[in-house]
Design a protein that fits this description.
Elements: E1 3-5, H1 12-23, H2 29-35, E2 49-56, H3 79-84, E3 94-103, H4 110-124, E4 131-135, H5 141-151, E5 158-161, H6 174-185, E6 196-199, E7 202-205, E8 210-211, E9 220-221, E10 229-232, E11 235-238, E12 263-267, H7 275-282, E13 287-292, H8 300-311, E14 315-320, H9 335-338, E15 341-342, H10 348-358, H11 365-374
Helix pairs in contact: 5-10, 10-11
Bound molecules: D-glutamic acid.
Residues 57-58, 74, 104-106, 137-139, 162-164 line the site of D-glutamic acid.
Organism: Glaciimonas immobilis
Keywords: Hydrolase, Signal
Pfam families: Asparaginase, Asparaginase_C
């Protein structure tokens, strides 16, 4: 894991030119590395200290040309190169970078979630670290963000950021997203707000945000629950905050965890059968998120196999494939009689994150239901 301090003055116009060329692929990273500003020994007084952890994704991606908005390669550009390509950051924060992973986020693993959360907690425990930014692929940023929202043990800002266009694209969204994320992570306003996801000038809560478009730069929305605020004109604006417990206020402690219980998702659709469910239970799932149609409805043919899984000790959580709204207890299924849990407003992928952590504490459906109403 490399750590660099990037703040020394270096003619910005020269750096901008070289990093534009670098991101366009015209300049090899070797040349750019030599042009990296010499690490500043002393941080700029008065600026917050922000550590930026690179994990990969499109924000670090490269396309064959500037119009290659799809079919590019994610996770190719080093985090210190991305930071150095935005000289304006010199006036925003004293930045250290760490390349913790370099992956496309569809391949992010639970082991990597645990490693990332543990590293974040070590860094935030250091008094001189004021906030953290994590660059990440957008495909699974919402799951990683929620996992961190439940496991980070600090009220200091943790801001996750990605991009929908690769780093060398025409109108790449990554640089401004990253600039805004560093600004937000160094702000006092972001303290105590839980883990935040900041793209497209908007600030969303980790619990509520989801990817709503495969490719447009406005893909991240908290749908009906709404944004928390904006980063605009180098300023941070909050208008509300989550009502759910997060970070320091959660009961989850991953410091000594090496693995998490297996939880799978069964997607609901017309005329489904239990082949996927049976396979997941046979593979050792300790929990199943049933992403049912409508209000988490359970098809007649699924009731027996789900109950059989329950009787084997598997926790069943009724979520919905719809993506918005409350899945109400004892609504579309007799949860009390079936000993099921409901996901409240969490989508299936977020419910999976919470259930994995819940199962590290208890196997009581009643206790797990409390967690779904708390976080
Ligand atoms: N492969 C996808 C990922 O790393 C690209 C999407 C993105 O990062 O925007 O999540």
């Amino acid at each position: 894991m490399q750590s660099h301090t990037l703040n020394a003055p270096f003619p910005a116009c020269i750096r901008r030119l070289f990093f534009t060329l670098l991101l366009s692929g015209a300049v090899t990273s070797v040349v750019a590395q030599e042009l990296q500003p010499v690490s500043a020994e002393s941080p700029t007084q008065g600026l917050p200290n922000v550590t930026v952890l690179g994990t990969g994704g499109t924000i670090a991606g490269t396309g064959a040309n500037r119009t290659a908005m799809v079919g590019y390669k994610a996770a190719t550009v080093a985090i210190d190169t991305l930071i150095a390509s935005i000289p304006e950051l010199n006036k925003v924060a004293n930045i250290k970078t760490e390349q913790i992973f370099q992956v496309a986020s569809e391949s992010m693993t639970v082991d990597q979630w645990l490693k990332l959360a543990k590293r974040v907690n070590v860094l935030l425990a250091q008094p001189h670290v004021d906030g953290i930014v994590i660059t990440h692929g957008t495909d699974t940023i919402e799951e990683t963000a929620y996992f961190l929202d439940l496991t980070v043990k600090s009220h200091k800002p943790v801001v996750m950021v990605g991009a929908m266009r690769p780093s060398n694209a025409l109108s790449a969204d990554g640089p401004l997203n990253l600039y805004n994320a560093v600004l937000l992570a160094g702000s006092k306003e972001a303290i105590g707000k839980g883990v935040l996801v900041a793209l497209n000038d908007q600030i969303n809560a980790a619990r509520d945000v989801t990817k709503t478009n495969t490719s447009t730069t406005d893909a991240f929305k908290s749908t009906e629950l709404g944004v928390l605020g904006y980063v605009q004109g180098r300023k941070v604006y909050f208008y509300r905050q989550s009502t759910r417990k997060n970070t320091l206020d959660t009961e989850f402690d991953i410091s000594n965890l090496a693995v998490l219980p297996r939880v799978d998702i069964v997607y609901g659709y017309a005329d489904m059968d239990s082949a996927a469910l049976d396979g997941q239970v046979a593979a050792g799932a300790k929990g199943i998120i049933h992403a049912g149609v409508g209000n988490g409805s359970v098809a007649a043919q699924m009731k027996v196999p789900l109950l059989a899984a329950r009787k084997k000790g598997v926790i069943i959580v009724r979520a919905s494939r719809v993506g918005q709204g409350i899945v109400a207890r004892n609504g579309e299924a007799s949860d009390d009689a079936l000993d099921f849990v409901v996901a409240d407003t969490l989508n299936a992928q977020k419910a999976r994150v919470l259930l994995m952590l819940g199962l590290t504490r208890t196997t009581s459906p009643q206790e797990i239901q409390r967690m779904f109403y708390t976080y």
